[in-house]
Amino acid sequence: MTGFPARPAADAPARGRGFLLLTVCAACGIAILCSLGFWQLQRLAWKEGVITQMQAQMRAPARALPPQEQWPALTGPKAEYSKYRASGRFDHDKEILIFRAAGKGSLGPAYHVLTPLHLTGEGTVLVNRGFVPEAKRAAETRKEGQIEGPVTITGYLRLAEARNMFTPADTPDKGIWYSRDPQAMAKFLKLENAAPFILEADTTPTPGGWPKGGVTSVKIPNNHLSYAWTWFGLAATLAGVYIALLLRRRVRSAA
Q1: What's the whole-model pTM score?
Q2: What burial class does residue 178 get, using C-beta atoms within 10 Å of its C-beta: 0-12 exposed, 13-18 middle, 19+ buried?
């Protein structure tokens, strides 16, 4: 009974070089995948630090809002979610709304109510006074909440909100926005000396109950642990494939 002809001995060096190249590629691939996994763990530690810092800033006592000349420096994680007090008068005639698919404590579509606060000193800051349901969208349905006269509000500093491909276009002419953009809003409302940030009011009750403050929460994507497991899983898979090929090669060599 005849079998398959044996491979020429001359092919052995070529096969050896091929497997050596495969080994080098597998080692490099595993090293790269593992390094990406460890990088994601480093990102995880950094992100958790940022979130902890922001949560601490929210729990800290409120400070007086800095004067206008210091506003440009209020940027980045060290400023976001900081708690401030501001005094002035609301300009309810320039109230605008940000649409939200579901408001806090609401079962349906809701709106965040933003109103310019002309500060007692200099400048104007947009205040997110809280959310209202669709039934309270019109200002005349919540007249008690349209506070006249001097007010002092406590809120959290928020910077511009990032848009994505799914964010609808704003409709300023209808008073409806879909993302938090203090500079664009201030420009549309023709506000002078407007702050490049927004203050989101805390849970202090509003006369009449609307808008309801306290919409602020730290919502920062933190998927780095799952990303790390993905990279480590790919590295383990590649190592498993290489080991399987190595065992197969040894079986063939022993045959």
Answers
A1: 0.72
A2: middle
Q: Is the pLDDT of residue 111 over 80?
A: yes
CA distance 217 to 58: 9
> How many residues comprise the chain?
255
Q: Tell me, what amino acid is at 69?
A: E
Burial 144-155 (b: 16+ CB within 10 A, else e): ebbbeeeeebbb
Place of tokens 């729990």: 59
Cα dihedral 148, 149, 150, 153, rounded to 10, equals -10
User: pLDDT per residue over 124-149, tens digit each?
Assistant: 999 999 999 988 989 999 999 999 99
**Distance (Å, rounded) from C-alpha 22 to C-alpha 246?**
10
3-state secondary structure of 85: strand
Instruction: Tell me the mean pLDDT in the region 22-43.
Output: 92
Residue 64's nearest CA partner among 36, 41, 85, 42 is 85
Angle between helices 11-59 and 224-254 (to 10 degrees): 160
Residue 127 has, within 13 A of its CA and on its CB side, a CA count of 31
Closest by CA to 58, choosing from 29, 79, 39, 35, is 79
Q: Contact, 170 vs 192, CB < 8 A?
A: no
Mean pLDDT of 99-120: 80
Indicate the SS3 state at residue 113: strand
Taking the C-alpha atoms of residue 216 and residue 200, their distance in angstroms, rounded to an integer, is: 7
Please check whether residue 120 is in contact with residue 87, taking contact to mean a CB–CB distance below 8 angstroms: yes
Instruction: Give how far the C-alpha of residue 4 lies from the chain's centroid of Cα atoms, to the nearest Å.
Output: 63
